[in-house]
Amino acid sequence: MAEKLTSQGDDTKNDNAILERTVWLKLDCWIIPVITIFYLLSFLDRTNIGNARIAGLQKNLNITNKEYTIALTLTYVAYVSSELPSNLVLKRIGPNIFLPTIMILWGLVATLQGVVTSYHGLLACRFFVGFLEGGVPGIVLYLSLFYPRQRLQTRIALFFSAASLSGAFSGILAFGIIQLDGKRGHSSAAWIFIIEGSITVACGLVAFFILPRSPTSARFLNAQEKDYIAEKLKEDQVMSKDPDVDAFSWSEVGRAFASPQVIMVGIIYFLNGVALYGLAYFTPSIVQSLGYTAAAAQLMTVPPFAVSALVTVAAALISDLYKCRGIVIIGGSVICIAGFGLFLGSTDRHVQYGSLFLSIPGTYLIQPALAAWNANNSAPYIRRATTMALGFMMTNSGGILATWLFGDISPPPRYEIATKTLLIFSVLMGLFSAVNMWYLSAQNKGKALARRLAECSADSEKMGDHSPWFVYSM
Question: What keywords is this UniProt entry annotated with (predicted)?
Answer without folding.
Answer: Membrane, Transmembrane, Transmembrane helix, Transport
